[in-house]
Each structure stands twice: as structure tokens, then as C-alpha cells.
Amino acid sequence: MSTHAEATLYASLTDVDALEQLADTSLAPECIPMEGMRDVVAYAVEYFHRSGRTKAPSRELLIEQWGKRLEQCQVILPDADVQADEVWSAVAYLRSQYVLAESQRLQRDIAVEIAQAETHERVEAIHRAAQSFHSLSMAVRDRSAEVEGITGLRDSLARYDQRAAAPKVVTGMSLGMSAVDEHCLGIHDGEICTWAAPPKGAKSWTSTHVAHTEWKRDRVTVLYTLENSVKMSYDRLACQICCVDYREYQKGTCGPEEIDRVRTWLDENEAAMKDGLHILSPDSGRRTPAALVRQAQSYGAKSIIIDQLSHIEHPAPSARRPKHETIAEIMAELSTIITTGRQQIPVFLNAQINREGVAAASKAGRLELQHLAESAAIERYSSWVFGLMRSETEIAAGMATLQMLASRRMDLKNWRMAWEPWYGTQHSLGEVTL
Question: What whole-number distance in Å separates Cα of residue 123 and Cα of residue 117?
Fold first, then answer.
């Protein structure tokens, strides 16, 4: 028994975020070593669900309702806050200890039963033993991705009530374009948002724009620049933030007032924004979906931005594998990693509109999903697909057309955009019909 693990468990009962983690894992009562505390934990979890998943019982309420039980069990509810990760660790430890004790008991019982069984009874004894171990396995599984019918529907209603109480709230990743964010309400955890544009179509600029937006929102963000250098990405970010001409910045011919804007911004924001943004360019061999996501998770990332899909590496590269299969398997692995487990993260992913697609879109007057390179895999695994195109007229006017090509949550819309990202200009001028 771990005093620390149990103390963490009991501390989570009065903290709504920690209690949410505990409720989602569905810790089996038998994993709690102190039998008298099982009812107390069950009461707190039920209280959380009855509140619409918005409240935890106060320390005073638990003492009022369960004071005698707490006294009998010699449990003192701590005042200190508990982190969600601590709850996961405590639950994992309690499950592990229960598995150790219960499996040892089962092995002893099975050995005795088989030794005493008649010849014709031993096969049946093995079947019963297998069933016992299966039941143990089911009792200690992580149920955070499993929800029973009524509970799932009640949770759905609770989430709706939260949205209704605070409408138009961006949840998850923001794209930093207000009209788009207001329509999409954010890229949620576990979703892939694919942003497609032609070659040299400012995809990398959009990546740094989204990264800056998330950074300002105090969300730890990892931007993988797999095509450009890290230095180039920071040069672009500086120009976007402070509305400095990137071309002049590269030549070293900016006006003094422009560079003063960069220096002033750094002086004013260095303390508040010192941490939180990580721009990385991993070496070859460390660019697989798993490697990228795991490295981002090690930084505590809330948002991942990848520039771009064609530079992500397959975990088992093969010259014989067709390109469309390679891309499909990369997308499948990326989707699986960010949607499973307890750390689900939204991903912003740049992708290419190939030259044939650009020509077809120009002729049709609008983008279609099939104009994207490897469009089938992108459509299958992306929750959002955006496409950006610029006609010659739009380029001259500093504008672009942004289309929603696919969405799992909202109706498709299109926007006319003011689009000069090298000056920090990326915003909607209004909706358009194409």
C-alpha cells in the first residue's frame, strides 16, 4: 500500500479537475486498499456526475457527510491542490498493487485446484483460471476512453450546458483568424486540421501565425519546421508579430522605427512569454508521427503544428511502397496517437496542393478536395481541411480566398481574406459564395 498514492487519491475528491480525471479512469473500488474509503470515493465521483461534471464536493461537505468514516479510517483530507498527472500516477500505482496481490492469490488458488482435480477436470480448471485472469484484466483497465450509455448521454448534455453558458468560446487550438475561429469554435483535442495551399503559398507563414496565436493564449505550443530552418521561422515570426517587411528584414534595410517595434515588443513581453513556444527541426530519423508527438508531449504541448505533411517520415520506410500508401499510413498513425491515451492534442498540419490541382482549381474557380496531393488520406483522417488559393488579381490586392473543404462538426464556409502574412496581415474580410 502506498500512503502517498492513497493521499493523492483522497486529495482529488475536492478538486474538480483532478476529480474529472479520477471519474474518467473509473478506478475499480477493489483497487482502493482501505475498504472503508471506497464509498467515500464513489460518493465524490457521483457528486461530480450529478453536477453536470462541473463541481467537486467541498472538503467541508465530505467531512459533514462522511466524518465518522474518515475518522474510522484515520484519513485527513488535505487542503493542498493536486495536479491531474498526480491522479493518473496514483491510480496507476493502486491498480498495479491490486494486480500484484490478486494475481498472486489467483495463482495459489489455481495451483491448488489443478493439483487436487481429477484428470478429466483439469482442462475445465484451466478455463476457469483464464476467466479469472480475464476478469482481473477487465477490472483494472483504463476506462477513460469507454463510456456507458446513460453516462455518455449525461456527459454530452453537461458539455452542451457548458457551451450554452459561454457561447462562441474557442476550445482547443485557435487559428488566429476571428471569423474562422467563431465558426469552428477551435480545433479540439485529438483533431487534425489540415491547411492546404499551393507551392510557395504561405503555408509556413500560416504555421508561425497559428503558433503565435497559441503562444499568446498561454498554450504550450510546438511548431515543427521540417522544410525551413528554425532561424528562418523565428525571423518570420518577428516580422509577423511587429508588422515588419520580411524582405527588408532579410536585407538588413528596415527603417529604425520598424526594428524599434521588435525591440519594444521583446522588452514588454519577454517576462510574460519567455516560455511556451518551441520551434523545432528534428534530424532525419526523428520525424515519424510517433517521434514528433512524443517529443511535443515531453514539452507539455497543448498544440502541435507540423510544416509539412510531405516531410513527415514513415516509421518503416520502403522504396517499394507507393506514395499514397505511405501518406495514408502516416496520417493513420498520427491520428491514432493524438486520439488515444490520456494526452490528446490538436494538430495543425500543412499539406500541398500539387501543380495539377492548382491548374484544375483555377479552371473550376474553386478548390475541391481532389485537388490536394494525397487527398483521400487527408480527408479520411482530418477533422478539418482548409484550402487557400490566390488569383493574380488577389495577389496584386493583397487578398486570398479561404475555403473549408471538409469538416466533421460545422457547415462549410468560404471567406475573402486580407492576406499579406509577411506583414502580419491574415484576417477575414467577409464570407463569400463560390
Answer: 10
